[in-house]
Amino acid sequence: MDYIRQPQAIEAKSFDIIGEIIRETRPDYQFASPLHEAIVKRVIHTTADFEWLDILWFSPDALARLTAALSRPCTLYTDTTMALSGINKPLLASFGGECCCYISDPRVVREAKAQGMTRSMAAVDIAVREEGEKVFVFGNAPTALFRLLELNVPVSGVVGVPVGFVGAAESKDALTHSALPAIAALGRKGGSNVAAAIVNAILYHLRDAK
Amino acid sequence: MDYIRQPQAIEAKSFDIIGEIIRETRPDYQFASPLHEAIVKRVIHTTADFEWLDILWFSPDALARLTAALSRPCTLYTDTTMALSGINKPLLASFGGECCCYISDPRVVREAKAQGMTRSMAAVDIAVREEGEKVFVFGNAPTALFRLLELNVPVSGVVGVPVGFVGAAESKDALTHSALPAIAALGRKGGSNVAAAIVNAILYHLRDAK
């Protein structure tokens, strides 16, 4: 069989095709900046879904705040191990950052049971008590995002893209009405893969700007 | 804020909503079996994308072969750590199965470099040399799926849903023309989250049938 076998060539060609499709189908579509373009295209690369052109929302300060946070030591807290898996952790570490997911932490399991909340919520409670600069990355759990908004603590950024049918759209709508620096998916769509793609797009942008 | 905080209640309500939307928007849509319905609905639950009603392809023997394999000791080989993360490994283990991803295995890194192939391809080469019953789970790498088809070895099942713009659709089309027991995503869509959702739907079906 004849097929491209070089990962870099596959990725470059993929982004070329995505750009061509956008130019053909949405000739009037405008990206706000190269980083905005990189994020939207990487999410489309991850999902093969061009609806992402229209459903990815950015607070005015989101890109400035997230690039600043990721370019220096900070901790990314994910709601799922899938999002944790998808994030380019060596590249994050090259900027001094680290990434963790507390969903299976014994403290979280205990606290969730004691308080009758989801483990995703208890994981947020534990994360906000830690020292240091924080970015929250939610691809799956609306309850995690609701909890973060309830706690009303300062954070350096939120990637808020829980997917689903119960609370997902509502949680993201609440995020867009908060004062937090955030990227959010409007409506039901989202996912751990989308969350990781957004983080990686920012990391690749920072790497290429070095 | 007022929102549902019980994970089981959230999931049950999500599936109810998905069923309602299908009945309203696609009143003539027929599921082939309860397991077919469980798989399609779980993929929609994971993606919030109803296009999955039309793009998930099953070989005639796919469900019988995959349920048989997953109900006894077998090894699932995933192309990404994200798919590995998403699979319910304790439940898989309760049937004697295990799951692994060789993408970062030193042998894979070495062999990919030596042979000028992707690590995803080298991971397949190493997996097929192992003993025991095998199921391949591909959510990301068309080259892995192409490689498996080239090697032409017997496997108990393939979940073939690589996402993307270069080779993804072609690799899945080739899978649907092979003799392998397979579930495939037609076109560009797919993903590690979709791959894990398909495996989990089968595992939950087996658990509930116990």
UniProtKB/TrEMBL annotation, chains A, B:
InterPro entries assigned: Cbl_synth_CobH/CbiC, CobH/CbiC_sf
Signal sequence segment: none
Highest taxon above the source species: Bacteria
Keyword Transmembrane helix among UniProt keywords: no
Pfam families per the UniProt record, alphabetical: CbiC
Cobalamin biosynthesis precorrin-8X methylmutase CobH/CbiC domain ranges (all copies): 10-204
UniProt key word Coiled coil: no
E.C. number: 5.4.99.60
Keywords, ordered alphabetically: Cobalamin biosynthesis, Isomerase
Pathway involvement of the protein, from the record: Cofactor biosynthesis; adenosylcobalamin biosynthesis
Molecular function GO terms recorded: cobalt-precorrin-8 methylmutase activity
PANTHER family with a match to the protein in the record: COBALT-PRECORRIN-8 METHYLMUTASE
Family: Belongs to the CobH/CbiC family.
Name the UniProt record assigns to this protein: Cobalt-precorrin-8 methylmutase
Gene field: cbiC
